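Review session, final week

We close the course with one last complete record, chosen because it touches almost every idea we covered. It is Chromosomal replication initiator protein DnaA, a protein from Niabella ginsenosidivorans with 477 residues. Go through it on your own first, then we will talk.
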Amino acid sequence: MEKNVEKIWSNCLKIIKDIVEWQHYKTWFEPIKAISLKNNVLVIQVPSQFFFEYLEEHYVNLLAKTLKRELGKEARLEYRIMVDSGNSKNKPLTMDVTGTGYKTYSNNEMDFPLVINNPVKNPFVIPGIKKMQIDPQLNINYTFDAYIEGDCNRVARRAGKTVAEKPGANSFNPLVVYGGVGLGKTHLVQAIGNEVKKMHPNKIVLYVSSEKFINQFMDHSRNNAINDFIHFYQLIDVLIVDDVQFFNKAEKSQDAFFAIFNHLHQSGKQLILTSDKSPKDLEGVQERLLSRFRWGLSADLQIPDYETRIEILERKMKADGLEMPREVVKYIAYNINSNVRELEGALISLLAQSSLNRREIDLDLAKKVLRNFIKSSSKEITIDTIQKMVCDYFNVPYDKLLQKTRKREIVQARQITMYLAKSFTKNSLKTIGEHFGGRDHTTVIHSCQTVKDLMDTDAVFRENVLELHQKVQLAAM
């Protein structure tokens, strides 16, 4: 029987050798061993689950046609995946070579991807190469201490801390951090990398942009050294890839990254990715990659709120040994509300102008220097503007503010709006009342007095009014 097995598989290899490139044949077919043949079922042994998946992804049709040619149309192929666990009980996975990929198995309860808890031996380790010194390509200034936590990034930051503590041994693998430009994606993922190096000095960490990855792949492809490229990345313990959305026009690079991703994930290594969109919204990226991106956690970064922006500015100033009037910090934080990068850029511009002109930083200088950053400055505060600000603050529909209703949250929002309108505009009480569904001046007087009384007795109410007062004041600057 053994001779028969060897003869059948040898015939198959002869056919395959004439079809695929020599390097591919040596990489993907020479390591295979034929184990047994019974009832037209050929059992072959492959070095790892990754090896199995790659064959099924790229050579399933070739294997099916070749085996049918040798054994007839009833031929079937059974894989035996070797697991380096010290356990000889290697459960075989069976696939019908007639053909729908790797979705039909002999054990119907098993669904792909198969998770093997034991470490899988890597069949592609370069002989003689051990752990080597690899520059992680990290910016040492990107740390968790320098990354301010707020509602905008809390989930992503805390997930990042978990990953740094137990890289590869957590449920956030891969960790995908996504969000718009300048919201701190690169800072966060590099902070994870720096924390890993601090807590796990023996871990090999590498940060690479998707563009650099693609360029490296193209260089290796031109030199017929793709296997060397893949081997290198398979050595990494924590792989950080920035801006994976740029893979959309690099099909071959996606193939290489797919192989690398599978190997690292199955070997218990950590993958960290960033993108400008959620994985489900990425276009031009292979579905098989997107499905793997969704295996772990996808955490988004949002625009920081006003309080977080103030904290970011203050932390930046402290790190650089700078001082600035509080009113200037508030002015910058209130008006620069697009992203962190622009916020820091505005601060740097202000400091530069102060230094060049040898002038103390004050509100007038801030207004002058930051006019290019601020979309709408020195605008007149109107009753309508205040109404919209209060509605946004309390999440109250604008039309409800004008209607006759006794709902407490609507009544209080309306009273606060009237109070602020009286404080910040030159409109008469009658005009203010007309902006609230035609109410008269006595209603405005009553509302203003009610707000003052509640501020004396209700601490939460007082805090809300003062915060809104500050927002309107900043908008009026």
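Two points worth writing down before the exam:
The chain has a mean pLDDT of 79.
Strands lie at 33-38, 41-46, 76-81, 92-95, 175-179, 205-209, 238-242, 270-275, 297-301.
Good luck, everyone.
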